[in-house]
Design goal:
The protein is α/β, with parallel strands linked by helices and 185 residues long. It has six helices and eight strands. It folds into two domains: 128 residues, Rossmann fold (3-Layer(aba) Sandwich); 31 residues, no CATH class. The protein starts with a helix and ends with a strand. The protein binds NADP nicotinamide-adenine-dinucleotide phosphate. NADP nicotinamide-adenine-dinucleotide phosphate binds next to helix 1 and helix 2.
């Protein structure tokens, strides 16, 4: 289970707190809330005492609500703009969804994305694109949360080493992290 943390866990932490500067009592909108990075971000934001709006497809609604989002927006049928103003947007989708999210950011807030440099910036806020960085201490901290049950990782698939090339082939998509099992227990 801990194999999901180096990428998903650190990305979620760095996006919310290092780049997004999310604090208790603020509102964060997390795109792709049922996915690999988003599902961890939802749990960390809740633990930090933030109000969480999650987005995604209808198939992710129940999972996002179970993880603790206060409100879920189905990007295929609901209006993203109904989310209202938020302190932080954490984007894992990019494109048009990212472009439209800039207008949701309150003055002084932050638009954070892990997909692409933002083409549209908040009128009176920051826009950040970042690539996750290694952080041994934070990783240990996240592993503690995993062990004590505060964090539940989203594992999409576990595949043997021999299937690694096809697991990551272009066009292959599994929501959640794909774990490659290098050795049998
Ligand atoms: N910059 C960095 O350091 C960094 C680090 C980690 C990941 N990433 C990137 O971040 C992205 C997300 O990674 P992930 O592991 O969280 O992926 P994931 O597990 O596939 O999660 C993405 C979530 O967003 C949903 N989604 C995607 N497009 C959507 C759309 N147009 N409308 C509604 N929902 C949509 C997906 O739903 P479905 O599953 O139904 O499509 C899924 O629930 C990837 O592009 C990855 O390469 C960047």
């Amino acid at each position: 289970m801990a194999a999901v943390l180096p990428v998903s866990g650190l990305t979620a932490w760095q996006g919310l707190f290092d780049h997004g500067r999310l604090t208790t009592g603020q509102t964060v909108l997390i795109h792709g809330a049922a996915g690999g990075v988003g599902s961890i971000a939802v749990q960390l934001a809740r633990e930090a005492g933030a109000r969480v709006i999650g987005t995604g497809r209808a198939s992710g609604r129940d999972r996002a609500l179970a993880l603790g989002v206060d409100t879920f927006i189905d990007l295929e049928t609901d209006e993203l703009e109904d989310a209202g103003d938020v302190d932080v947007v954490f984007d894992v989708i990019g494109g048009d969804v990212l472009d439209r999210s800039a207008a949701l950011v309150r003055p002084g807030g932050t638009l954070v994305t892990i997909v692409m440099p933002p083409r549209v910036r908040p009128r009176d806020g920051r826009a950040v694109f970042f690539v996750v960085e290694p952080d041994r201490a934070r990783l240990a901290d996240l592993a503690t949360r995993l062990r004590d049950g505060r964090l539940k990782p989203f594992i999409g698939a576990v595949r043997p080493l021999a299937e690694a090339p096809c697991a990551f082939a272009p066009g292959e998509h599994t929501s959640g992290r794909t774990i490659i099992r290098v050795a049998e227990d």
